[in-house]
């Protein structure tokens, strides 16, 4: 499991509106997690829990932190990985702590400031979904501060390996990376017009055009797409109605 994306979490300003939006766009179902003293919604694709939804922490907007999706990456030991991350130039923003009966986590950023979480669950992990199954997250993309140093950082931390590299001309190289031999995402040096490094998550839908229509009807802003990518899939990128970046991927128009 070490180095595998295992959970995704949206921190937003309006939980009910975000729940209705993503249920419509991705087809997820939703239910309250029943966590004492905390309002947390679980989003599921069929029987598989995929993501969580929560209100942004108090003071986040004052610090100019926008609503955002956060990816959780499994590690063998959260404390050990957090220490290694810090030694490699990353920053631990929320020290390792336990979620009762769930697992242990830490909120961190890479050396250039892209945020993610380290996580180790209690007990046996649930059965995995097929990567490209409807409602799952099919792709993980890093707009890195610098591709070479970012790849070295993540490779040391998670054991990710290089897969194909695509020359994007003036935009630079798009490096696909793999976990246990399975390509799971790509990274590239962020374009100059992108102010900060960030992770972007692609949610699987059945057909991209219909999903774009649903997203725009629901108040999302289309940033890019529909665009065909190598392998024949179609993608689109958006800002949701509350301001969080997300993307969609589908096998057909």
From TrEMBL:
Pfam families: Glyoxalase (PF00903). InterPro entries: Anthracycline_SecMetBiosynth, Glyas_Bleomycin-R_OHBP_Dase, Glyas_Fos-R_dOase_dom, VOC_core. Residues 4-121, 136-251 form the VOC domain. SUPFAM superfamilies: Glyoxalase/Bleomycin resistance protein/Dihydroxybiphenyl dioxygenase (SSF54593). This is VOC domain-containing protein. It comes from Rhizobium meliloti (strain 1021). The lineage of its organism: Bacteria, Pseudomonadati, Pseudomonadota, Alphaproteobacteria, Hyphomicrobiales.
